[in-house]
Amino acid sequence: MNEAVQTSSPFTPRVFSGIQPSGNLHLGNYLGALKRFVDMQSDDMQTLYCMVDMHAITVWQNPEDLRRATRELCAGFIAAGLDPNKSILFNQSQVAEHAQLAWVFNCVARMGWMQRMTQWKDKAGKNQQNASLGLFAYPALMAADILIYHATHVPVGEDQKQHLELTRDIAIKFNHDYGVDHFPITEPVIEGAATRVMSLRDGSKKMSKSDPSDASRINMTDDADTIAKKIRKAKTDPDALPSEAKGLEERPEARNLVNIYAALADTTVDAVLADVGGKQFSEFKPMLSELAVEKLAPISTEMARLMQGQDEIDRILASGATRAREIAAPILKKTYEIVGMVGA
Ligand code: TYM
């Protein structure tokens, strides 16, 4: 079994994670999440990967764009190496149990917990009164996504750590309030060299789909020329690369590019620096471009091919949803029984 899921918990190891179908899939999503999803796919453990369309609508989405982005994300999952026969791939809204459990969790989680979430503060900004109620309750739905499957392990990027801590708090409070051991205390799996990929234009900002500058990110649909151009223009400093990770501490842009290289090459930052220490960026950037194109171009080509067969994508999502519901329904039923709902 995968080392990341060694556990002493009495719950059977099961992996769940999700990505929002809002805007483009970018290199941060790929290295921080999707590539890790593929690494965790295994024959002897259930893995569920979800396109969280209900999370996406916590901020306005044009319906046509949402439909397209959901299918494109599914194409991205498969093109990156997820096998619909091994992993359960589906979109969240097709499994109503997520929303049903989220309501229960809305009644378990406290307003103060939600108010502390940095993603809420960032996304709602100064105008919290005008943000949707769904955006505020977002982490309770996320906890429901995970716990409706009794998932024990959740691969994510660094920015989701706080939400996963809240998921644990919700499970602990539910178990405590009802005097049960019903929900597992989920382990975040935040691993690899690129758990926080930064903007190519500003090493202090996360690479994100909401950055107005397209040059700040590499999209999974970018072609080879665009990838090379963005890396060529990426912000750096004038110094040569150090030969040890310590030398990157005060150099956010340099560190970001080395992290990206290490994650794409499936190696460590130390191993990369042992190789490229002493080189100038004029030499390192073309190496990074070549590696990025080698790894990403086949994914974008395959995504484009899969997008030609929309019916097949819809069939995969529907069949994934059926399999997901088989796991979710008995867990929801048990939860309703615990809570005291008649007819559960
Ligand atoms: P989302 O859609 O914003 O991002 C999807 C995944 O990509 C990771 N990620 C990054 N990793 C490294 N560097 C970056 N710059 C970067 N940007 C994004 C995120 O950490 C995430 O793993 N709330 C989640 C979606 C979600 C979910 C869940 C995740 C809903 N329910 C249940 C896990 C389990 C989100 O907004 O991800």
What does this molecule look like?
This protein folds into two domains: 3-195 and 309-339, HUPs (Rossmann fold), CATH 3.40.50.620; 214-305, Tyrosyl-Transfer RNA Synthetase (Orthogonal Bundle), CATH 1.10.240. The strands form two sheets. Strands 1-2-3 form a three-stranded parallel beta sheet. It has a two-stranded parallel ribbon with strand order 4-5. The model has no long low-confidence stretch (mean pLDDT 96). Strand 1 (14-19), helix 1 and strand 2 form a beta-alpha-beta unit. It has helices spanning 27-40, 53-56, 63-80, 97-106, 111-115, 118-124, 133-147, 161-178, 224-233, 252-264, 269-276, 281-307, 310-339; strands spanning 14-19, 46-51, 87-91, 153-155, 187-189. It has 13 helices and five strands. Helix 3 (63-80) packs across helix 12 (281-307), helix 10 crosses helix 11 (269-276) and helix 10 (252-264) crosses helix 12. It has 344 residues and is mainly α. Bound molecules: tryptophanyl-5'AMP (TYM). Tryptophanyl-5'AMP (TYM) is lined by residues 16-20, 28-29, 32-33, 52, 55, 142, 145-146, 154, 156-157, 159-160, 163, 195-197, 206-207.
Mind sketching the topology for me?
Blueprint: E1 14-19, H1 27-40, E2 46-51, H2 53-56, H3 63-80, E3 87-91, H4 97-106, H5 111-115, H6 118-124, H7 133-147, E4 153-155, H8 161-178, E5 187-189, H9 224-233, H10 252-264, H11 269-276, H12 281-307, H13 310-339
Parallel strand pairs: 1-2, 2-3, 4-5
Bound molecules: tryptophanyl-5'AMP.
